[in-house]
Design a protein that fits this description.
This protein has 13 helices and 15 strands. An 8-stranded mixed beta sheet has the order 6-5-4-3-2-1-14-15. Strands 7-8-9-10-11-12-13 form a 7-stranded mixed beta sheet. It is elongated.
Length: 380
């Protein structure tokens, strides 16, 4: 009876240990899965980007474009929205970035041109977030009558996007025009300046890419230039305008136009801007073009980042001009991490825990050795 109780007690203890170990492992795995985005971002120092005064994120939305900006005064801007297919991932990323900055709304959404790889996520974004204002291009087709003004009616994705914008409550809609926004940061030490260089024509025919504005963002002596899908013709327009105004535009961070297409980002344009870092949003085998990569190299660009290989790219700029660039490249594989940790816990349990049968065998061996010693003593 005593032997049975000992066995039952030992078995009970073993079951409790196993149950607790399994429970701890399950909780750990659940926490990893739930918080994997936190783990992923902090793994490559994205926490430092969150802590910067100006934050710019080139989001990974495949063969499309979406850029999210948080200004020093917490004003948030979304430039383009990727495709409809990437909408779910875009919303998830935006929700994460907004929450990290304790923000609820998107203050401004800028659509550079009507193409579906730039406006496809509009509906998904508006369904999830309150967007307070929208800037959209003046895309005009004079020979057609449109329900909405300045609309390419045969672009179904853009039509649905415009319908969603007009249906958005408390959202102010304006057209992309030449304008300058100047905001002081919360410490009143530096100013954030946003200048929009709008398309100079009302009609580019079927070339919707040419409606893309150039958006210049400057803070603490650092300048970003966002380009949409602007082709060579728009590059010429911008350079001519700057020349006529007797001014230059030096760029630290260039968003390369049209996913790195060879029909944009020409050498004379790069020579005029002298960018130090380049960012390309691309996701297929054709982009970025090797021609463009060579042009960037020849223009002495220090480093070129591409979302299809680097994932989401974050740039943080502090008030003193210091900056940090982080990418998702080399991020930890959470499923693999779970497997490795599970194996580690299993091995540790095997080393720490000795099964009852092993304990019984060890006890029997010890008794046998003791008996042999006793016999040897008696004989002596």
């Amino acid at each position: 009876m005593k032997n049975f109780k000992e066995k039952f007690s030992s078995l009970k203890n073993v079951s409790i240990v196993k149950a607790i170990s399994i429970l701890i492992l399950l909780i750990f795995i659940v926490l990893l899965v739930i918080n994997q985005q936190n783990i992923q971002f902090y793994f490559n120092n994205f926490g430092q980007v969150f802590g910067s005064d100006l934050q710019v994120y080139f989001l990974d939305v495949g063969q499309a474009s979406a850029t999210f900006v948080v200004l020093p005064n917490d004003f948030s801007i979304l430039i383009d929205t990727g495709t409809a297919e990437s909408g779910e991932g875009l919303v998830r990323d935006l929700d994460f970035l907004l929450s990290k900055n304790n923000l609820n709304d998107i203050d401004m959404m800028i659509l550079t041109h009507p193409d579906s790889d730039h406006t496809g996520g509009v509906v998904a974004v508006l369904e999830k977030f309150q967007v307070n204002s929208v800037l959209r291009p003046k895309v005009c087709v004079p020979e057609e009558e449109n329900y909405f003004p300045y609309l390419v009616s045969n672009t179904y994705t853009y039509l649905k996007a415009i319908e969603a914008i007009y249906a958005e409550p408390n959202c102010q809609m304006n057209f992309v025009e030449n304008q300058v926004f100047v905001e002081s940061d919360k410490n009143f030490e530096s100013q954030t300046t946003i200048e929009i260089f709008a398309a100079e024509k009302d009609n580019y025919g079927s070339d919707t890419n040419s409606f893309s504005p150039y958006i210049s963002l400057s803070y603490a002596g650092k300048t970003f230039l966002f380009t949409g899908d602007a082709p060579q013709a728009r590059e010429t327009e911008l350079m001519n305008r700057l020349a006529n105004e007797n001014r230059s535009l030096s760029v630290d961070f260039l968003q390369v136009a049209h996913h790195g297409s060879k029909y944009s980002t020409y050498p004379n344009f790069l020579a005029a801007l002298s960018p130090k870092y380049a960012f390309i949003s691309a996701g297929d085998k054709l982009h970025p073009s090797q021609n463009v990569l060579k042009r960037l190299e020849d223009a002495l660009v220090k480093e070129t980042y591409v979302t299809k290989s680097d994932g989401t790219i974050g740039v943080g700029v502090k008030g003193n001009g210091e900056f940090l660039i982080c990418t998702k490249r080399g991020f930890v594989d959470v499923p693999l991490l779970v497997i490795l940790l599970s194996l580690l816990i299993f091995v540790l349990m095997r080393f720490i825990y000795v099964s009852p049968s092993s304990q019984k065998f060890s006890a029997q061996k010890e008794r046998k050795i003791a008996k042999e010693k006793l016999r040897g003593t008696k004989k002596a």
